[in-house]
Recover the amino acids of this structure.
């Protein structure tokens, strides 16, 4: 049944705001448990583009927006300072930009002007001093939330004291908590060594949440994925990689739905470096009940495990009857939908150590490679590179005939022509994280930064 929140389980502060100030609101000093609320539909404009309810806009993570390309030069439309860094990709729901911070606060901002409509603080985040390793301080909400149109709820996962990971459902209209569920379901593992970096996925009436480890791969953790019904009732489904430790599911794009509705996840290096295969360094195909029905692993899995060359640094990409995946080794694999087991790829191509989430349209995949953004074309069972942009390594999204990606080193939003790889425009948005991903929506592009959210517009 749906769970009621208690102050000891999860501190929740109820706050709404219509302030136009760019300063972050003060974290409330009182916390109240959630109470049941009537269902109120998310506010929605009469007309406009479809919502951006999940990472890259859709459950296949294509990142192909309905918005057209902005007309250069690019300008800032507004800037909103929040109470922590925004690692997650923002969502856009009913004219509201939903942003989650590492201070465990969720904000709803007016998309046109950046005014705060409501915000909800979900408990104190964890200081790096209380974690065995890692590179985010403090550690709160990292994985991109997801919105469910059926329940009109937004789902987020917080990290609080003791490394506790909690799935929380919030009403999109006002931020009121509906229910929560503890996701630390792996007995014998250290929850403080687990990290929830991957985007959440809403599909088949469930919220799917994947887990990996902290930066540094310390402690007793294992890659696993959970599924909870969107109404908060019933058991917590789960699948864990059958390795002694590691094999994290940590790609920022998170779980992906394939053309038949099954769920695909990629995993990192596991414990085994020879002998019998342990299920790590793989792409895994799962049913909606999280039963494994297929997998792929490269023949180099043992060496990859030994050298920390995990396949799971980027998410699988469904593409016209194939699955494309690229990991740290730098090899791109073209896979059949059933995945084919060890060495079951259709073809391979070298040249892309990938991190984050790709964008795709038709036969084209735009991969965030560590040495720069690349366009990959797939024809039948063959792959070939078309162009690359050295130094631009951020996870891209599509809008019309352009891509948007973030240059972490410069703090720039960059606009790229998909056909040629020509950089059409760029604008500084401030300091961004490695896996930050922009959102093109209507006449704006929204960017989460280490201090809040920036909206960019083009020439009218």
């Amino acid at each position: 049944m749906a769970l009621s929140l208690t102050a000891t389980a999860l501190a929740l502060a109820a706050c709404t705001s219509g302030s136009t100030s760019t300063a972050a609101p003060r974290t409330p000093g009182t916390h109240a448990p959630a109470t049941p609320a009537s269902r109120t539909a998310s506010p929605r404009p009469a007309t406009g583009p479809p919502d951006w309810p999940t990472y890259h806009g859709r459950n296949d993570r294509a990142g192909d927006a309905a918005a057209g390309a902005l007309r250069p030069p690019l300008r800032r439309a507004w800037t909103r300072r929040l109470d922590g860094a925004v690692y997650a990709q923002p969502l856009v729901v009913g004219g509201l930009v939903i942003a989650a911070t590492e201070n465990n606060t969720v904000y709803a901002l007016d998309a046109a002007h950046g005014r705060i409509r409501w915000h909800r603080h979900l408990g104190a985040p964890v200081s790096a001093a209380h974690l065995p390793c890692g590179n985010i301080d403090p550690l709160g909400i990292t994985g991109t939330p997801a919105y469910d149109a059926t329940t009109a709820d937004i789902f987020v996962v917080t990290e609080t004291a003791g490394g506790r990971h909690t799935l929380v459902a919030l009403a999109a209209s006002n931020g009121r908590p509906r229910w929560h569920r503890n996701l630390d379901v792996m007995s014998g593992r250290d929850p403080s060594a687990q990290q929830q970096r991957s985007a959440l996925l809403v599909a088949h009436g469930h919220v799917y949440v994947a887990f990996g480890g902290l930066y540094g791969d310390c402690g007793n953790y294992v890659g696993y994925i959970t599924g909870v019904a969107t109404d908060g009732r019933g058991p917590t489904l789960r699948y864990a990689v059958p390795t002694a430790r590691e094999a994290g599911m940590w790609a920022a794009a998170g779980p992906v739905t394939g053309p038949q509705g099954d769920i695909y996840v990629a995993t990192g290096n596991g414990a085994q470096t020879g002998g019998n295969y342990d299920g790590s360094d793989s792409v895994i195909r799962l049913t909606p009940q999280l039963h494994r029905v297929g997998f792929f692993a490269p023949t180099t899995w043992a060496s990859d495990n030994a050298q920390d060359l995990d396949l799971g640094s980027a998410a699988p990409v469904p593409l016209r009857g194939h699955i494309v995946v690229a990991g740290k080794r730098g090899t791109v694999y073209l896979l059949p939908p059933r995945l084919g087991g060890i060495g079951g790829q259709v073809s391979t191509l070298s040249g892309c150590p990938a991190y984050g989430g790709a964008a795709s349209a038709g036969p084209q995949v735009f991969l965030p490679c560590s040495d720069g953004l690349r366009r990959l074309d797939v024809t039948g069972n063959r792959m070939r590179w078309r162009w690359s942009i050295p130094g631009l390594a951020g996870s891209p999204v599509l809008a019309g005939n352009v891509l948007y990606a973030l240059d972490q080193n410069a703090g720039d939003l960059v606009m790229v022509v998909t056909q040629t790889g020509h950089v059409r425009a760029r604008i500084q948005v401030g300091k961004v994280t490695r896996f930050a991903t922009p959102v093109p929506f209507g006449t704006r592009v929204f960017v989460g930064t280490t201090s809040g959210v920036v909206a960019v517009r083009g020439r009218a």
